[in-house]
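#dry-run=false #mode=assembly
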Amino acid sequence: VALFCLKIRSDCRGNSLKPVRIGICGLGTVGSGTFNVLERNKAEISARAGTDIVIQQIGARRGNPDCNTGTVEVVHDIFDVARNPNVDVVVELIGGTTTAKELVETAIENKKHVVTANKALIAEFGNELFAKAEANGVRITFEAAVAGGIPIIKALREGLAANKIEWLAGIINGTGNYILTEMRDKGRDFSDVLKEAQALGYAEADPTFDVEGIDAAHKLVILASIAFGMPLQFEKVFTEGISNIEPQDVTNANELGYRIKHLGIASKSNDGVELRVHPTLIPEKRLIANVDGVMNAVLVKGDAVGPTLYYGAGAGSEPTASSVIADIIDLARFIATDTVPTQAHLGFASEALQEYPVLPIAEITTAYYLRITAEDRMGVLSNITQIMSQQGISIEAVVQREPKSEGSQASIIMLTNRVKEKQLLAAIKTIEKEDGIVGPVVNIRVEALV
Amino acid sequence: VALFCLKIRSDCRGNSLKPVRIGICGLGTVGSGTFNVLERNKAEISARAGTDIVIQQIGARRGNPDCNTGTVEVVHDIFDVARNPNVDVVVELIGGTTTAKELVETAIENKKHVVTANKALIAEFGNELFAKAEANGVRITFEAAVAGGIPIIKALREGLAANKIEWLAGIINGTGNYILTEMRDKGRDFSDVLKEAQALGYAEADPTFDVEGIDAAHKLVILASIAFGMPLQFEKVFTEGISNIEPQDVTNANELGYRIKHLGIASKSNDGVELRVHPTLIPEKRLIANVDGVMNAVLVKGDAVGPTLYYGAGAGSEPTASSVIADIIDLARFIATDTVPTQAHLGFASEALQEYPVLPIAEITTAYYLRITAEDRMGVLSNITQIMSQQGISIEAVVQREPKSEGSQASIIMLTNRVKEKQLLAAIKTIEKEDGIVGPVVNIRVEALV
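#status=ok
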């Protein structure tokens, strides 16, 4: 090992602890970033880990021009890495949930710790993978799976460990946030901005995962499980995308002192847990309302600490690598001293995890922004307010927009108080049947985040 | 121990690992918060620590009405706690640097880990205390010493461990931020707001520590040492307070698109390290410019991750307790498994710490806001710009305020490019000697924070 170390590490400082040997599987954006940061910052990383971290092997179908792998062995079969007896930690950066799952399982069976950036894998298969890891005396770490370079998993799992977490709300998809920011700043419409984001490489050719909230749901369920101490329940996350947000709603929100953000929200009360991803109006005074472009942020409310916020790059080669390597360093201290990592996968000891009921979306309580299109005539507004009142819904603010010159339809904009969603939907159903109401009532949830 | 546990813990769940026994020294604001949160959240805390945390003893000269200590033994001599063979962790919450230092030393000599919220103690005596702790096989942890409930020490030390930290900038004194926020929002002057802050309990009777930046300097030096991997050098921090900030400068900054914040700034370049606390103009677009009132935030720039920000309550009973308890939980995992905590005190292994030169303030490079009072006559502005140009200073923006009706003096407001401070001071000296210049030139540093 010392010889190998001399070969690949110029500043090998002869730390007394044994070096930790990692195998990187996948040499795409995150894989190459991980390689490059490990090489560039090896002095700092060794000093912080208390031992040297050696890239023992790379598994990748092809090389990456962004990454000069030098004398490090590159194999084409990633499973070779998972079985390599000289690898202590397998770094899974291939993505997806089929081969990646097999790879992680093989690594665990071979008693290797796993570091992954794979949110889908953890969100959908974390429960069984964690159990398998615990049975084999190894750990899976996944800081990079949520909010890229922001150390939010560590903050929730360790930094806020004294707290009952009451709720958290995150901008955890950079693509969606970029689109909403552009819509607000430039008054553009969704599809326009999406096309540009695709051209710039911020959005995938198939943007469904990002703009429909599936990616955010993966991340949200991971955060929620750590926050509340419960098994992962990805299938229970309510998901609503941003593709129906219209420029006029962005403008109306602004004028009312709000911003529209695509939030992942998790909260816990005596009734159960809420897990939901949807466009949300939030007061512009909140720090998180001012997180723009591709940046991510997570706001966490603990009973002792109050609100805290974590902000940074939610994606990208080196920001994600930053989290991957932080996990490797955490593991390295244990591996170098031949001890077992003491941190539970979801923060809570696995036997202490509890299944809390996840509320259906109809049962959640929140405030609403409504945009009602109506014929411009007497009595319409008064009918609407009467229906709302019958459903026990108070109106906090109302703005009536003059009809445009060409037509005779007015927009009525309302902010409601906090109500159960099913009450609101019942009211909307009644309103839509009213004479003089045109088309569906647009509704967007509103959260004060205090 | 089991019996004791049954007596004081109603939900004692019979974890298989041995309970971790702590002794709390000091039952003031933070001590009572720590006691109360440990009691209220004991189920979550045990589940996260993987073992029970038992308050074995409290050392306090007097009780605290905010805290019902029940059957827990309370002794008057805190040194009894430090010597108690049944205490694993001494929690130092008495403050100050004389008795507290002796207490921590006694605890270490008795092979106890120490958790402290004491920024002055760590900033001024950390180097020797850490060495003593390492010699005795124990750890001192101090998350609560910086930015209250924000887990910033953990984020820097572990979460960003892959990075070369380039710089960090923090609003790390809530009192100062409250005063500056009020000055901006309400156009009030410094002494007015200070008096109110004292009445509200946000500021001490002697506000020097807070408003002159000494408290922030304590915190800054701790952050900088962890960020850059160097021994603590409190005496080298440059400190300038906010008591000279005038309402007109707050207004001018606003009109130029900036906010004035009292920042602690640490940066590292090939020339050395900058450690400085002073009022700073920052662009209002930056998230940290919008951190208001008593809240704290730290912006950290890593070479891999880019900018990240951490926000939350910087003081207060339970926010600070949140950090104290997070440290206890981190230690508990090791104590319960009879292993030695693997995390170095300052993130870098102690033998890897390096002394970097700390630049004197004259040698730092930054941009400046200048307010020059001048007779309202021809040629003054042109003379000033000529002097600036001779010193190699470019002017990025200039605003000339009309003289008020009663007088004939104008204010010239300038933003400069980035220059060495000594160059700027030389220019100011020359300007102040010019005919038509009235009184001293007001200068406030400006940072873009990108």
